[in-house]
Predict the 3D structure of the following.
Amino acid sequence: MTAPVARRGFSAESLGELIERRDEPEWMRERRRAAWQTYQDIPMPTQQDEEWRRTSLRRLKLDDVEPYSEGSYASHTGHAGKTLVPPAERDEVFGGFIGLRDAARVEYRLSDDLRAKGVIFTDLQTAVREHSDLVEKYFMTCCVPASDSKFAALHGAFWDNGVFLYVPRGVAVEEPLRAVTQANLQGRSSLAHTLIVLESDSQATFGEDFISSEGERQGFSSRVLEIILKPGAKLHYIGIQRWGRAVYDFHTERAVLERDTNVVLQSVELGSALSKGRVEARLEGDGANAKLLGLYIEDGDQHLDRYTLQDHIGAHGVSDLLFKGVLAGKARSVYSGLIRVHPKAKGTGAYQQNRNLLLSHHARADSIPNLEIAENDIIGCSHGATVGKVDEEQLFYLMCRGLTRLEATHLIVEGFVDPIVEVTPIASLRDSLRQEIQERVNTVQAED
């Protein structure tokens, strides 16, 4: 049965309808209302704001999208009952899998072994009801509060579903966990929230996809990822955005790291008309380590604006960032990164690199790395950025060995992106990503 359709636009009335539909504890209802008030108090960003100077929102039409639409994907597309596990990964052994369609959980499994160890891996709506105390403690409190930005506040009010992962102290989740969020974003919205909490000396690997089909009507996405790692915890996270070309995607991904923690935060952006996001690591505890990896492939008139922050608060922390972009057509990317070292963050080592490869005369990449250092006793902080076209000497060398110009370009692009793809922790996902990128470059070259 098709779920009722929400009114269009984000408003106090539509929020009231959403709250009435949900079986949520009062604390979450109050948190939604408070987030809505925060959203109203924060002005919509404009190009007068430094962070938004290179990204325009004039084509964003929030009043035209449905703020929520639960459980309707299958009935509209005929996908009811079909697994959301990507075809290339169906022989992979996962510790758990969650499939969401238009905010409704349609697929779920978790191994008996992980259940017995106290691991919680479920959709966020279920977690709010069944693990209320845990979610209340961490949901948009210490990591990404609603006051963080205009779109974080909107997310806090209207989030629809997502994933909650909790790993108890000392538990190592050996098999990867996986989630797929699929949405019909034809004039609709998706506000997915991922909340990950790893207790002391625990570890896990988690990958998730965000997918929608192509369409002409504008869609809207506002995503939040919160990662909280307790002392000694280790996490490898990879998120892949594959929204359709009419979607406006806004997101915040942030990890809060306590003492002696390790995180790999890997972000792959392949879709959307406009993507504006933050990827941040806050190294609060001594000896925390963060590796931030990003890959974006843009063509046509896609626009991507990415801000990264390596925020060193504790001593002897190490952060390493590598973001790479491949741009074709009239695509544009904006990268702005900051390494910030606080007073008393002794022994810090921080490195930041953004590299961009242009496959078209019309593509453009802006790269703006920054340092802000308030402590003298550090190992070192450095940053670098490159923007360039495919090297003609490399092309000539490869073509002299029998390759066509197109084949040589493919080989160079493959070598350029592979350092990001290679570290993907799920073998079948790594292989399918390579194949998808190769097909994408083939299409791009045919257009150019």
Observations:
- The chain is about 25% helix and 40% strand.
- Confidence is low (pLDDT under 50) at residues 72-79.
- The first strand starts at residue 96 and ends at 101.
- Residues 12-285 form one domain.
